[in-house]
Amino acid sequence: MLTLPRERLMCPELINPAPPYHGAVTSTVTQQAASAQPPVARTYQVRTYGCQMNVHDSERLSGLLEAAGYRRAAEGADADVVVFNTCAVRENADNKLYGNLSHLAPRKQSDPQMQIAVGGCLAQKDRDAVLRRAPWVDVVFGTHNIGALPTLLERARHNRSAQVEIAEALQEFPSTLPAARESAYAGWVSISVGCNNTCTFCIVPALRGKEVDRRPGDILGEIQTLVDQGVLEVTLLGQNVNAYGVSFAADERLREDPAMWSEMPRDRGAFAKLLRACGRIDGLERVRFTSPHPAEFTDDVIEAMADTPNVCPALHMPLQSGSDRILRAMRRSYRAEKYLAIIDRVRAAIPDAAITTDLIVGFPGETEEDFQATLDVVAASRFSSAFTFQYSKRPGTPAAEMPGQVPKAVVSERYQRLIELQEKISLDENLAQVGRTVELLVATGEGRKDAATARMSGRARDGRLVHFGPGAADEPLARRAFDHVRPGDIVTATVTGAAPHHLIADGALLGHRRTRAGDAHAEGRRPRTGVGLGIPGIGAPDPVPATSGCAR
Ligand code: SF4
After folding, report:
1. Alpha helices, DSSP H only, in 432-486?
2. Could you name the Gene Ontology cellular component terms for this entry (predicted)?
């Protein structure tokens, strides 16, 4: 760990004495707390960049801070602690981070008690360089030690010196940390962290380390905890979910000896077994997962998906390129033919499956012929939607050093052609849904509930976004039923229209089921998971307030 003297920092106020501290790191400060005013909980805000992993990590950061006595800052209010959970994958991620940190510098100057922490992939990559570029930052922590955040904040405050702690390997499976979930009805559940692949465009293995799998009992226990609190849907999360079983770790053994990971025998059927076990959890209505790797996709997973009623008919499987030559250069070990064969088998077993993907255009060395091969596979795959990326150099990745970088203008032109093709396919596939009955888990934050349409939104079982309306103006009963629908409830509706990125269901609802998730959402209750032992606290914890992929 690196500790920089506070005197190095820009703000002269920072050498002023710290106010009384109400935690339990040292006996001295605990004594101060005994004679101080009743503790006022400090507020926090977590700003998240990047993929679902980071979104879920931010839930853990929130849970850790709340377990330590911090309170979530009200919307639009200045927080006492601002945490940046960063991403190193996106283009210009570092410029954006340092720009945002600069915006906070004047505030830090005027309020030295305010603290700024930087974690996540960019912190893991830049380490103490974060403090060289933004010396007003208080804490820098890595992807392997997010559980240290409350301790580091307290240490920075107590010692009046910036704290940098970057662990080289996972110290504790992050799911054992407390998490304050964002959604009352859907939850992320990590099944693994890290990745054993070495895709040449990806920085993830360098920053998140080798794959470590969580034991099935721990995963199922966390799902049960979520379901007990009303959650209806879980998404199993990993960089490469169908490699699950490659290196199970018992948390205690992991802490003692990370080398134990590789000594556990691989269980190749572990992911399919996990899906089937999810099917036996009462009250769990929807199971999703992201993302599988085509190279490791096995038929037992397809069978488990087809046989397990609560596993949703949806598959997100990154293709990246349809050219075998480019896949080889990307170090992705499947080929276009294998990819298409998997899709055929999925559609044979689950005819209504919505299949989505990730695509990169303009990888180094990509010729017009290679690009045409991508268009061909996209046309044959008939994805319901695709996340499309223009290749750009990511420092620290092998591809950034490869010859044959494709000029930006060429990348943009190919990208436009790919978008046009995929939009047409998405629209055709969505038009084929018109007239069907869909079951929707009503969502918040994805809606178009505006004055003009009064629509709400939900996700169909296959993952499609559906905006549904209150029915015709001359159907007062239907409109009244619509008024009682809440995020977290289940409705059924008939699809009446389609666009490339969503469906419309503007008729009267066919059904509405009030759920415990809907109750929880309406009451502002958010699920909590994990345990928080030994976290230094400030004051008493308050009640919980109401509130694309990895590098592929
Ligand atoms: S793109 Fe995904 S599978 Fe490939 S190295 Fe990165 S995290 Fe692993």
Report:
1. 476-483
2. cytosol
CATH fold group of domain 313-431:
Transcription Regulator spoIIAA (3.30.750)
- Check whether 87 is labelled as a binding-site residue: yes
> What is the assigned CATH class of domain 181-312?
alpha beta
Whether 2-168 and 313-431 share one fold: the answer is no
Task: Determine the distance separating the centroid of ligand 1 and the alpha carbon of 275, expressed in angstroms.
Answer: 22
Portion of the chain with pLDDT greater than 90, in percent: 63
Chosen CATH of 437-522 out of 2.60.40, 1.10.472, 2.40.50, 2.120.10: 2.40.50
114-134 pLDDT, tens per residue? 999 999 988 988 888 899 999
Which pLDDT score is estimated for 512? Answer: 95
User: Which of 274, 203, 188 shows the shortest CA–CA distance to 233?
Assistant: 188
Task: Give yes or no for a contact between 120 and 96, defined as CB atoms under 8 angstroms apart.
Answer: no
pLDDT (0 to 100) of residue 317: 97
Q: Per CATH, is 2-168 categorized as 3.40.50.12160?
A: yes
Contact 139, 156 (CB under 8 A): yes
The secondary structure of residue 311, as a DSSP letter, is: B
Coil vs helix vs strand at 337: helix
pLDDT score of 302 more than 70? yes
For residues 151-157, average pLDDT: 94
Choose which residue among 52, 190, 193, 199 to substitute to test ligand 1 binding: the one with the highest number of ligand atoms within 8 A of its C-beta.
199
204 CA to centre of ligand 1 in angstroms: 6
pLDDT in tens, 161-204: 999 998 877 766 777 788 889 899 999 999 998 899 999 999 88
User: What is the CA angle 277-302-337, rounded to 5?
Assistant: 150
Mind listing the pLDDT tens digit for each residue in 488-543? 999 999 999 999 999 999 999 999 999 999 999 999 999 999 864 344 444 333 33
Domain ranges of the chain: 2-168, 181-312, 313-431, 437-522
Strand partners, 161: 5
Pocket test for ligand 1, best of 87, 197, 326 (most atoms within 8 A of CB): 197
CA angle 189, 195, 196 (to 5 degrees): 145
Beta bridge partners of 438: 493
